[in-house]
Write a structure and sequence with these properties.
With about 350 residues, this protein is of the alpha/beta class. It has two domains: about 1-65, no CATH class; about 70-350, Spore Coat Polysaccharide Biosynthesis Protein SpsA, Chain A (Alpha-Beta Complex). The chain has helices at about 1-30, 35-40, 55-60, 65-75, 130-145, 165-180, 215-220, 240-245, 260-270, 300-305, 310, 320-325, 345-350; strands at about 120-125, 150-155, 185-190, 190-195, 210, 215, 235-240, 275, 285, 325-330, 335-340. α5 links the parallel β1 (about 120-125) and β2. It binds uridine-diphosphate-N-acetylgalactosamine and manganese (II) ion (MN).
């Protein structure tokens, strides 16, 4: 009799579990409704009342990615992140803080899902060790929460050449393409920390200015948090095919300023103008700093800018290897560190011969 009762009890437990668990499993497989998406994309729990926003549209586009979809349903992907801007984290330790282990060189891909795109972050760099520690740790956190397949490349310009963002971005692009197949390229200042998990680190069909709200500019103009309307400085994303259409960045800007305005002109000339991330989402904390040595203001930027449209197919990605070469490539624990040397005279001579 006792055996019989035990059997009945076990049966009841199995049936109970089956009826409770099965719908939960299938629940993940159903497509989220527009209401789910609106709830998940709202910041304060109230769904957006209006038509589909561009953010919602983006989410709909990536919805076939099973993992993201599950995160979306749980609402986890879309929380405001808590950036780690104050901690000084070591760069030589794997799995330091709040993110999963990455492969040597900082490569990561989620285990349980197939990401739709492969993103690479390219950071122009020289002598900003504190900023680098902070951005690297924050990037791993946000990129993993977005379940992306990604790599992070830090491209350093050797001394004594005056700093030049464009040549570093172009060299980074070529190198990343040699190492793996990436389709989305994010060009990222070392000192801008993402403040919101909804900032999409995957590419749209248009080039995108991601750092739409920057605390540095917000101090001056809180309503806009941007210096001017065509501004695309800070963080941008674009597909590899589009970067090639622009012929990358200009190599011509040595010193501070101008490179970002030049690529904005290139994008317009190539008929793929930049769009901007929603300012409530593309929020970045600007780590404070002084102007670096070897990066004084570029006094030629005004005249270079005037000829940007005419020049764009003749100098940039297609000519960078004539003036720059790779000195070293080191697979650090959390990123790939590349050092390049460039010859300013070669660039200037090229310009004269255009
Ligand atoms: C603005 C733009 C930046 C670029 C720059 C002009 C924003 C948020 N950013 O930044 O995208 O257009 O003006 O050139 O408006 N760097 C080093 N070491 C150096 C010098 C520069 O690592 O010695 C790198 C680093 O990634 C830095 C970036 O270059 O974030 C931009 O230089 P910046 O931070 O000195 O210029 P900033 O803040 O005015
Ligand atoms: Mn800066």
């Amino acid at each position: 009799m006792r055996k019989f009762l035990l059997l009945v009890l076990a049966g009841a437990i199995v049936i109970g579990l089956y009826t409770y668990v099965t719908p939960k499993l299938f629940q993940h497989e159903t497509k989220p409704s527009l209401k789910d998406i609106r709830l998940a994309t709202s910041t304060n729990g109230n769904p957006h009342p209006n038509n589909l926003s561009s953010v919602e549209q983006t989410i709909l586009n990536v919805i076939s990615n099973k993992c993201k979809r599950e995160l979306l349903l749980k609402g986890e992907l879309f929380n405001i992140s808590k950036p780690d801007i104050l901690t000084d984290l070591p760069l030589n330790v794997l799995n330091t803080h709040d993110f999963l282990p990455v492969k040597k060189g900082g490569f990561y891909e989620p285990e349980n899902c197939e990401p739709l795109t492969r993103t690479v972050i390219i950071i122009p760099y020289r002598n900003r060790e504190q900023h680098l520690k902070i951005i690297i740790n924050n990037l791993h956190r946000i990129l993993q929460r977005q379940q992306l397949k990604y790599g992070i490349f830090v491209i350093e310009l050797s001394l004594p050449t005056t700093f030049n963002i464009g040549v570093l971005m172009n060299m980074g692009f070529l190198l990343a393409n040699n190492i793996s197949e990436y389709d989305c390229f994010v060009f990222h200042d070392v000192d801008l920390i993402p403040l919101d998990d909804r900032i999409a680190y995957h590419c749209d069909v248009s080039p995108k200015h991601m750092s739409a709200f920057n605390t540095k500019y917000a101090k001056v103009n809180i309503a806009k948090a941007l210096p001017y309307s065509t501004y695309v400085g800070g963080v941008i994303s674009l597909r590899g095919v589009d970067y090639k259409k622009l012929n990358g960045f200009s190599n011509a800007y040595f010193g501070w300023g101008g490179t970002d305005d030049d690529i904005e002109i290139r994008a317009k000339a190539a008929m793929i103008p930049f769009k901007r991330e929603n300012q409530n989402i593309g929020r970045y904390y600007a780590l404070p700093h002084q102007r670096d040595s070897n990066n004084t203001e570029n006094l030629l930027k005004g005249s270079l800018f005037k000829s940007a449209r005419k020049r764009y197919l003749n100098e940039g990605l297609n000519t960078v290897e004539k003036c720059c070469k790779r000195l070293s490539i080191v697979y650090k624990d959390l990123y790939v560190h590349v050092t390049v040397s460039c010859d300013e005279n070669i660039v200037m001579n090229q310009l004269l011969n255009l």
